[in-house]
Amino acid sequence: DTAVSQTPKYLVTQMGNDKSIKCEQNLGHDTMYWYKQDSKKFLKIMFSYNNKELIINETVPNRFSPKSPDKAHLNLHINSLELGDSAVYFCASSQDLFRGGEETQYFGPGTRLLVL
Amino acid sequence: AQKVTQAQTEISVVEKEDVTLDCVYETRDTTYYLFWYKQPPSGELVFLIRRNSFDEQNEISGRYSWNFQKSTSSFNFTITASQVVDSAVYFCALKGITSYDKVIFGPGTSLSVIP
Question: Is the pLDDT of residue A101 over 60?
Answer without folding.
Answer: no
